[in-house]
């Protein structure tokens, strides 16, 4: 039987519903929701095969509901061309983000984290390899309108530099994605924008312009704007990179609450101590995924608690006993930036 196709006839946009229909008429051995991926092994860290759960020991599909998976990458490569030179930003990255997961991407500067996030957010396409988002395979010829729709309704970005529109007030910035979506009436948009600003603690700042807000407040407006169309996945590129300890704490609390409400979060950060907020930590170096670490719920809660205690103590000046297993922050040095190396070495 032929694989089901959508109305445009493009197999790249098959939905999970289409896949489920095909499962009804095929045996498990014939139907593989996603192709299998190889099992990696890296030292003593717990490494989970990205395909675990989807395939049983015989390598056949266990027909786990594919709706569990939000994003799947398989052997993703990205090479940027500068003149005739190729810059290999990603060199064979494979992993899965499950729905509701909080994934933290750590790694060296220039390692490929932003490139990876951009590919997961469909604002960039891989040179080689496969990407699935909510079960739809994203191909080189996937229509821009399909990707734009995905980005308007189901994905949202938060960047380190807040990217707010300077000539618009906080509330107008938050209203913008809803106006573009066109689903709500003007009064519904206004009410929702107010609610979102209240959710991030900025109900008193709705009519301020970005330059009348602190960095932490601007980032909270950005988060409210990202939430405007109720996306399922938030992609965050160093969301606390420009913030001080106190504002980092506020933003991380908001993110944690959003994750608890069911949002899938994928966050790139240089701040190693923030990994305690995630369920899964992925380390990227020289375009490769070098380690994937699962954090148990127990470990996560206790680390978050200790992390908050440490921050509170820093603010009040109380001494906390630093134990060897407590998360520590690492900072980037000028030597970490390839462009600055000639000047600092
Ligand atoms: N548009 C581009 N054109 C050419 N090369 C690029 C482009 N974007 C990224 N690169 C290169 O790809 C590599 C990975 O870049 P990327 O921005 O993904 O790294 P990163 O891990 O996010 O770094 P940082 O931590 O400094 O933000 C780098 O060597 C970078 O110079
Ligand atoms: Mg980056």
From TrEMBL:
Region listing for Disordered, in residue ranges: 300-345
Limits of the ABC transporter domain: 71-311
Keyword Transport: yes
Domain of life: Eukaryota
SMART domains linked to this entry: AAA (SM00382)
Bias-annotated ranges (Polar residues): 316-327
Keyword field: ATP-binding, Nucleotide-binding, Transport
A GO term, aspect molecular function: ATP hydrolysis activity
A cellular-component GO term for this protein: plasma membrane
Residue ranges with Basic and acidic residues bias: 300-312
UniProt cross-references to InterPro entries, sorted A to Z: AAA+_ATPase (IPR003593), ABC_transporter-like_ATP-bd (IPR003439), ABC_transporter-like_CS (IPR017871), ABC_transpr_LolD-like (IPR015854), MacB-like_ATP-bd (IPR017911), P-loop_NTPase (IPR027417)
Name of a matching Pfam family: ABC_tran
Keyword Nucleotide-binding among UniProt keywords: yes
Protein name (Swiss-Prot/TrEMBL): ABC transporter domain-containing protein
């Amino acid at each position: 039987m032929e694989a089901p196709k959508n109305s445009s006839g493009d197999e790249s946009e098959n939905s999970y519903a289409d896949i489920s229909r095909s499962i009804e008429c095929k045996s498990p051995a014939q139907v593989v929701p996603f192709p299998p991926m190889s099992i990696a092994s890296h030292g003593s860290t717990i490494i989970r095969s990205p395909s675990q759960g989807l395939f049983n020991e015989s390598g056949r599909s266990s027909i786990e509901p594919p709706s569990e998976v939000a994003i799947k990458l398989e052997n993703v490569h990205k090479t940027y061309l500068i003149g005739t030179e190729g810059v290999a930003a990603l060199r064979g990255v494979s992993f899965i983000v499950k729905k509701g997961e909080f994934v933290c991407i750590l790694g060296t500067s220039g390692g490929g984290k932003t490139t990876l996030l951009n590919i997961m957010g469909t604002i960039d396409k891989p040179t080689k390899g496969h990407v699935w988002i909510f079960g739809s395979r994203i191909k080189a010829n996937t229509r821009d309108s399909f990707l734009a729709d995905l980005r308007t309704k189901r994905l949202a970005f938060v960047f380190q530099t807040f990217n707010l529109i300077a000539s618009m007030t906080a509330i107008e910035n938050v209203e913008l994605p809803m106006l573009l979506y066109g689903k709500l009436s003007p009064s519904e948009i206004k009410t929702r924008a107010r609610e979102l600003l209240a959710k991030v603690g900025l109900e008193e700042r709705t009519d301020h312009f970005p330059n009348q807000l602190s960095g932490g407040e601007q980032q909270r407006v950005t988060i409210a704007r990202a939430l405007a169309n109720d996306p399922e996945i938030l992609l965050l590129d160093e969301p606390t990179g420009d913030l001080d300890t106190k504002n980092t704490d506020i933003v991380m609390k908001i993110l944690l609450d959003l994750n608890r409400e069911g949002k899938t979060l994928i966050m790139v950060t240089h701040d190693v101590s923030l990994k305690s907020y995630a369920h899964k930590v992925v380390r990227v170096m020289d375009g490769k995924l070098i380690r994937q670490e699962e954090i148990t719920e127990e470990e996560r809660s206790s680390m978050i608690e200790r992390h908050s205690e440490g921050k509170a103590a820093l603010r009040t000046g109380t001494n906390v006993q630093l134990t060897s297993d407590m998360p520590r922050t690492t900072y980037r040095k000028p030597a970490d930036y390839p462009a600055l190396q000639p000047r600092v070495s």
